[in-house]
Amino acid sequence: MRIIKLDQAARKNILADLLKRDPNNYTAYADTVAQIVENVKTKGDEAVFDYTRQFDHAHITSDTIKVTQEEIDEARSLVDKSLLEVMEKSMKNIRRYHEMQLRRSWFDSQPDGTILGQKVTALGSVGVYVPGGKAAYPSSVLMNIIPAEVAGVKRIVMVTPPGKDGKVNPVTLTAAHLAGATEVYKVGGAQAVAALAFGTESIPRVDKIVGPGNIFVALAKKAVYGHVSIDSIAGPSEILVLADETANPRFVAADLLSQAEHDELASAILVTTSMELAQKVSEEAEKFTAMLSRKEIIQASLDNYGYILVADSMEEAIDTVNAIAPEHLEIVTKNPFEDMTKVRNAGAIFLGEYSSEPLGDYFAGPNHVLPTNGTAKFFSPLSVDDFIKKSSIIYYSREALEKVHKDIETFAESEYLTAHANSVRVRFEEE
Fold first, then answer.
1. Residue 177: is its pLDDT beyond 80?
2. Mean pLDDT, rounded, for 313-324
């Protein structure tokens, strides 16, 4: 991995480099996605089936697009029992963590005759997109569905591309069933997002769409935003390790590569105050890469977006962390809890040398759907909050309104909104 002495110019160049990975920069695909979305919006099932034949080479009809209970039972029988046990343990941790996020409606009653409050209501329906192909990502299935189920969403719809045989990956399907999906449809890509947003003859529309996907899925979510809500426009995965001279270079190198193996656009960065650690991590990363199964992808990721940055001080290092706002941040320093308090921008923060990033991906419980590409400066991890909405509650008795009605009328008239003022005044016109 390249080692760079950190200064203002280097930080600026690296930030600009990382931003090139933003899905919003891939405008070349926007027209194609817009056409797919419009075709599904106007032609419904016909367009969905055509695109499924074209892109997934599967023949799906209105009779086969929805997964049946028989298919769910078959899928479960094909999943290794030890994996089932692990998924069930992971689910317990994920559910317990997200149950701590639950919000309650609240009301504040005052002696003057006013009641103010907030009513919390779960969304009526949510669509969860899950990538297909040869790989299966049951962890993403659990992370997207369980918070919705905990929030109280009644209709949780999963969409995922079918294989050429017209079936859903058995591990993916089993995870969806265990997590609480109420419906599963065999459709992927931008056409699946459009179907969820606008509805077709076979797929009723939803209120919100969540879940990861390729650039076509990301741009489709962007295109339908406003017709439905979405979680985010997710970019490539990234990890940043903040470390000092006390860190184990072998652990740090292994953790950096855990994200580099996702794809060639993934980013793996070490920010450290120790040049000795920087050199040792670079050596260990080279050794690990040579022996790992996805070494070509890892090497491309490191060549494109892998950095080891050496800072003069921990303060400078933490300033760099906040500027990058990483999706995953590991803090491996003498005082990780103290250093954590100075971090403002990060999706998920892992403290200490035994809290490696895959712990969060699979098992600990906090959600692994995280803000990427610097958006941790203003976005948060997927949570129960993403699956609820809040309504304000206002009640005034006649006596309470009487005390303030002239103030309201004055305010409204200052904005030349006389009908607003009259709406209040009319209640006291006999006076």
1. yes
2. 95
Q: Torsion over CA of 41, 42, 43 and 48, rounded to 10 degrees? A: -20
pLDDT at 132: 83
Summarised one tens digit per residue, pLDDT across range 352-409 is 999 999 999 999 999 999 999 899 999 999 999 999 999 999 999 999 999 999 999 9
Q: Between the CA of residue 280 and those of 5, 255, 272, 296, 300, what are the distances in Å?
A: 15, 14, 12, 22, 20
Phi-psi region at 241: left, alpha or beta (left = phi > 0; alpha = psi -120 to 50): beta
Q: Out of 232-236, 251-255, 331-335, pick the least confident.
A: 232-236
The strand pairing partners of 43, in sequence order, are none
Active site (annotated) includes residue 420:
no
Cα separation, 158 vs 4, whole angstroms: 44
**If you average pLDDT over every residue of the chain, what do you get?**
94
Active site residue 338: no
Active-site hit among 71, 327, 330, 353:
327
Strand arrangement, sheet containing 348-351: 3-5, 306-310, 267-272, 238-243, 328-332, 348-351
Percent pLDDT > 70 in the chain is: 98
Q: Which tens digits make up the pLDDT trace of 250-260?
A: 999 999 999 99
Q: Active-site residue among 98, 177, 262, 328?
A: 328
